[in-house]
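Notes, p. 3: input format for complexes.
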Amino acid sequence: MDAISYERAGDIADALRAAQQPGTVFIGGGTNLLDLMKGGVTRPAKLVDITHIPGLDTIVSLPDGGLRIGALVRNSDAANHAWVRERYPLLSQALLAGASAQLRNMATVGGNLMQRTRCSYFYDTAFTECNKRQPGSGCAALDGHNRMHAILGASPQCIAVNPSDMSVALAALDANVRVSGPRGERVVPFGEFHRLAGEHPEFDTTLQPGELITAVDLPPPLYSEHTHYLKVRDRASYAFALVSVAAALQFDGATVRSARIALGGVAHKPWRATAAEQRLAGQPLSDALLHDAAAAALQDARAQRENGFKIALAQRAIIRAVNQAAGRQGGAA
Ligand code: SF4
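Output follows (333 residues plus iron/sulfur cluster):
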């Protein structure tokens, strides 16, 4: 049995000081971390409990009309908060699509950003080949079961996908992640928070050692009217996405002024479909335009042995999500 030390932080400075010891991990809701520890996937030397830090469990309105959601706000509280529902329904929908009611009541916004892939080889330590768990050991999924794995941005080192629904909406909404660390505070644009596996799949994010997520900032709500989060999965609830789509639109009459589209379940990070967004912008929405945009979004997709179906599925999900966001009956997916 490994010995683990535990410390409860009273404030952010306290947490940062306590985290100076190598092998320290912050714990909030613990819904993913405790599973990883029980399975022997993660073996921290020290846990720093951040759940008693005041001020991190609030949602406040920002002067520019945006929102600041504290890192300790529970997923269910964020999803059901009146300001989130009114100004960012895409985020509310995505949060409610995640996990189960019990888990959403426990899981925090900061923890959701940090949850690790659900690749079964990563969780099962009987498999010795996993570059994410043990750098340099190989990747059992490459020649194994990879139905759930990446079709975009994959690396020969790791083809795992990010499991978060919330993060797909935050990617589409251009959120920012606020971080405190030994060198002070910084703000990370959402697209730069999670990383592709590349040569170092052991790192899921660009967080530096000892840094603590304190909040997520949402920009002014430009996309509150026409949004839809579509999650395609094997079961109706409590299942991770095969493919998910966060779609948000602005219109000038019948013409799309701008579009924001992000995909989940397809890459090591939430995948922003900028090529599709560009195809839609400035055009009246039509079936032909949507098919063109969906094809553009997946033009660089590469299938693994078992997940070729995801490419067509993602295209059809984009079409359906955008149609739903627009309130349009179109060529269905
Ligand atoms: Fe490990 Fe990534 Fe390969 Fe899964 S896909 S076995 S997480 S290296």
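The domain at 226-325 is CATH 3.30.390.50 (Enolase-like; domain 1).
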